[in-house]
Design a protein that fits this description.
Strand order of the largest sheet: 2-5-4-3-1-6-9-8-7
Order of helices and strands: HEHEEHEEHEHHHEHEEHH
Strand content: 15-25%
Distance between the termini: 57 Å
Structural class: alpha+beta
Length: 275
Amino acid sequence: MAITDIEVIENYIRMCSDGWDQGWHERNGGNLTYRMKPEEVEQCRPYFKEIPGPWVNMGVQADNLKGEYFISTGSGKYFRNVSLAPQDNICIVEINDAGDSWRIVWGLEKGGRPTSEFSSHFLNHSVRKEATGGENRVIYHAHPANLIAMTYILPLTARDFTRALWKSATECPVVFPGGVGVVPWMVPGGSEIALATSKLMKEYDAAVWAHHGLFCSGPDFDTTFGLMHTIEKAAQIYILALSAGQGKILQTIQDDELRAIARDFGVVLREEFLD
């Protein structure tokens, strides 16, 4: 048995492949982190390095993530290569007792470090862990083209984006009834965008990065991938409708119809986003 035969690693690799197949991860674009359950750590521990890598300070800190373990894509690594050579393209990192540093305990055998946006992921894991009582474990960042295109034509507000997406596909108010947040353009990988995103993720499961991509969170791989997929499909419908209608949309789902969807499916919509 190899570490890649362990269910959590198998599922992680599958999600990387699914994202690549969707066309969301050009070159080394995007990143995926997963906060491991204690039993998953123990399943993987026999494959850990005899001597872990050195501790690396992140420049951010979270008390509620002290001693946690994360699976992460590697900085500069390609999603398309994860399934071919996981040991060279992903890693497991341990967080120290101060909650401010990581070290590699498995993976990236040919060198490297976790994703350059690990600090953003880390702070968002902290926020989502607190907001969901520990339920959320996945943070996924990808570059879905249609959603990115929307950031060039809509006001960069949570209300405008949420309304456009909700009204583009009937399932959207059910899948993300709380809406989506929007982060204005910032240089990726630094503490500024990490802090801005984590503020939004206290309220939202998903945050749009203007002219860049989408950040999603969920309890497991299927739910998180499904959230990304649903948002991008709605964005594609929106862009197609605008293009086909030469900038005009003749009819769409009305606000009271959104309320009816929420009522029948037992979800609570963010009312301030409705007229």
